[in-house]
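re: ur question from earlier - yeah i can do the single chain one, its not a big deal. heres the input i used so u can compare w yours
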Amino acid sequence: MNDRWDEVLDVAVGAPLRIAALLLGAVLVRWLVHRAITRIVRRTVDSKLRERLVDRRRGRVLVEASDALAAERRRQRAETIGSVLRSVASFVIFGIALVTVLAELGFELGPVLASAGVAGVALGFGAQTLVRDFLSGIFMILEDQFGVGDLIDAGEAVGTVEEVSLRVTRLRDASGVVWYVRNGEILRVGNHSQGWSTAVVDVSVAYDEDIPRVQELIRSTADALCEEEEWREKVLEDPVVAGVEAVTGTAVTIRVIIKCAPNQHLAVQRELRERVKATFDRERVRVPVPPVPLAPTTPGTGGAPGKGSRT
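and the output i got, formated as tokens:
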């Protein structure tokens, strides 16, 4: 009778208490792990995201992106990475707790684990594309290949990143079209917004112009542009007149290269072209005139004699 009473008491009180203790311990461990993940992710993202470029000529520090974009990028990376790690931690902790509870209730764990393994393999084969998209998204975010506000070339689509998730990256191109690109389909990424950009301007002048004089005019114009307050924050180094890039029968092309802050090269290129044009007009530097196409000759109107002409 005492043994039976002990067995009944264990079933009525002991097993539920152990199960409650297991569940409470699982919840407590999950809370601690989630808190640790959140702190680690925030600290890591804050320390590695903002890359600065130092302008040696002026001793300035240029930030890679604006404060708003950088803050949004930090927030998105922290939330995404933290969400993935917290989900994995919750799955592992509660999975172990569930298996332990089933063992306490007297279930045979061998068939259960075998069934779960078969179901996992079947799900993995059936959702290969989805798994590939998620894995690619995780590595893109962890490696900081691009973020919100970056101008990227993702192959089929070129545009500004508006949102990065684990499965899909959303871009908006120059025409305003929104592109949704699956992360698993992105084989290579060209990021125009990391570090710095290069403004390349080719200037063509007439073939018989004084090339050293033209180069000096271009150099002085570019230097004046870079020294102005409006453009000083967009230019990282002194402009370089690389020299003659091409020579044709009517024109000589001179190339100018300027190292700029990210995504500022297009504005610098447009402004430099306008100023070079104004300088050429003031200094009377001639530019090549495109050749006038010759009118096609028809029989009887000149040129080679044809059937309707008299010889």
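The chain has seven helices and ten strands. not sure if urs matches, ping me
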